[in-house]
Task: inverse folding
């Protein structure tokens, strides 16, 4: 239910932040304006007694988020990778949200396993540990298969997690509608669409069968990537609320001191994390969309191991090409081309001035170059980008939400390994390789060949389509409709001609 009863949930959110002391800490860490700090404290204080107490042993913000539930914990996980936004101290405090939350009893996990798979843990495993990691949605147990002796990770959903997430998401939907009603300017950002997209992602994460499929596909896509590994699912021991994967042995990527002590090159690891993400997003259009430190390890041989595939991102080929051209434009400092790509893709309304937009993009990009990366405040950069998008009427593109969010998370992970990492310099070889292989003559030939293949599949029906168009044309004599018919037939003929040309040109390669 997404009615006004959610006001209570939102009030309790503010009350919890005030009661736990998180309101003051969070506002100071994010350098909120003094007036906003005073207003938030004045509004929150009267309701302080309504807030959840949380675990007093945890730092204030972590205490508040864990008390409020899984959706808030997910938000905290993202912030934990952004020390440039919330500060080093708060970032370190939030890192426990990734995989160090209080576990639920192992007996409950075993009972869930039996209910889901119809077999006892004792019958299938020679070892089944206490929880080795507990996150917002599930916890993981280390086990050993009796049949093969293989070590595996058994992931089990938290009891009642589906209902808890539904409650939080309903409150978010209500808040989004209230924001749109009270602030018409916010509709450009489509907050209700954003929450709907977030809901679809989260609800997919709550079905572990889908995660098993994601792990399998991701492993197949990245099988040849050097320095990267993905554990594969054990299908016969996986279900909606239980997932069994191969065990990933290594040092968590968040334990930088341990990684250095083991002799690994943190600079090389930071570059590889970013380049792998860009490669997966651009090359495959299918990427790990929850790449925080809690979901990555470094193996003894230096490979980066990824796990937890509940949130995966997917973008179509056209969007990938647009994204690559935008990135390459920034890297080359060709802001005019970046502006043109935005207009060509329809990201900016055509009635806006392209030269003004290019100058605004230059103001975003230029501070990045010729400066020590550690001095760049991504918080201020993102704030300025928001001002630019508002000025030029850009709308939030829901298909890019996961890509944008993951880019922020991955950069944060990379910076935790090397604070001086320059995102643009590291990204350049990956983006240039993608553009070389996918934007140019060879890519044009491939596109034409695919067009021929599509026409070939529908070839037997083309006479029927043409006949139907001609029949409809004889029933009306409107000139506009005649032109429409002529244009349609011309497109078919041009497509066939282009396809034949593509086949001929392909023979030259």
Result:
């Amino acid at each position: 239910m997404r009615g006004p009863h959610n006001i209570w949930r939102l009030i309790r959110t503010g009350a919890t932040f005030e009661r736990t002391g998180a309101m003051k800490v969070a506002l100071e860490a994010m350098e909120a304006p003094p007036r906003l700090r005073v207003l938030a404290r004045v509004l929150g204080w009267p309701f302080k007694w309504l807030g959840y107490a949380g675990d007093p042993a945890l730092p204030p913000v972590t205490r508040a988020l864990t008390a409020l539930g899984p959706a808030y914990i997910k938000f905290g996980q993202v912030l934990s990778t952004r020390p440039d936004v919330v500060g080093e101290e708060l970032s370190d405090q939030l890192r426990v949200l990734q995989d160090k939350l209080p576990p639920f009893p192992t007996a409950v996990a075993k009972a869930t396993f039996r209910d889901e798979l119809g077999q006892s843990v004792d019958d299938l495993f020679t070892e089944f540990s206490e929880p080795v990691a507990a996150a917002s949605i599930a916890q993981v147990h280390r086990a050993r298969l009796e049949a093969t002796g293989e070590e595996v990770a058994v992931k089990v959903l938290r009891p009642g997690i589906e209902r808890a997430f539904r409650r939080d998401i309903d409150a978010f939907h209500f808040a989004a509608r209230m924001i749109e009603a009270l602030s018409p300017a916010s509709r450009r950002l489509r907050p209700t669409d954003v929450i709907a997209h977030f809901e679809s992602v989260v609800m997919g994460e709550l079905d572990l069968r889908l995660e098993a499929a994601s792990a399998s596909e991701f492993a197949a896509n990245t099988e040849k990537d050097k320095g990267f590994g993905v554990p594969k699912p054990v299908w016969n021991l996986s279900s909606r609320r239980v997932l069994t994967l191969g065990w990933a042995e290594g040092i968590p990527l968040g334990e930088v001191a341990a990684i250095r002590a083991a002799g690994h090159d943190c600079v090389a690891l930071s570059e590889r994390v970013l380049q792998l993400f860009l490669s997966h997003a651009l090359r495959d259009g299918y990427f790990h969309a929850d790449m925080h430190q809690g979901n990555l390890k470094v193996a003894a041989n230096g490979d980066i191991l990824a796990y937890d595939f509940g949130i995966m991102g997917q973008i179509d080929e056209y969007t990938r090409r647009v994204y690559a051209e935008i990135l390459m434009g920034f890297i080359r400092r060709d802001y005019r081309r970046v502006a043109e790509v935005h207009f060509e893709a329809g990201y900016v309304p055509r009635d806006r001035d392209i030269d003004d937009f290019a100058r605004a993009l230059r103001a975003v990009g230029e501070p990045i170059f010729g400066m020590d990366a550690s001095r760049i405040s991504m918080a201020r950069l993102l704030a300025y980008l928001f001002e630019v998008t508002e000025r030029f009427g850009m709308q939030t593109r829901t298909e890019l939400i996961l890509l944008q969010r993951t880019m922020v998370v991955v950069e944060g992970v990379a910076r935790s390994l090397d604070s001086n990492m320059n995102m643009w310099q590291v990204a350049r070889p990956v983006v240039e390789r993608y553009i070389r292989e996918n934007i140019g003559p060879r890519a044009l030939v491939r596109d034409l060949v695919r067009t021929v293949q599509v026409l070939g599949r529908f070839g037997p029906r083309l006479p029927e389509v043409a006949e139907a168009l001609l029949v409809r044309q004889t029933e009306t004599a409107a000139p506009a409709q005649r032109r429409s018919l002529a244009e349609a037939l011309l497109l078919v003929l041009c497509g066939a001609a282009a396809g034949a040309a593509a086949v001929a040109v392909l023979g030259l390669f």
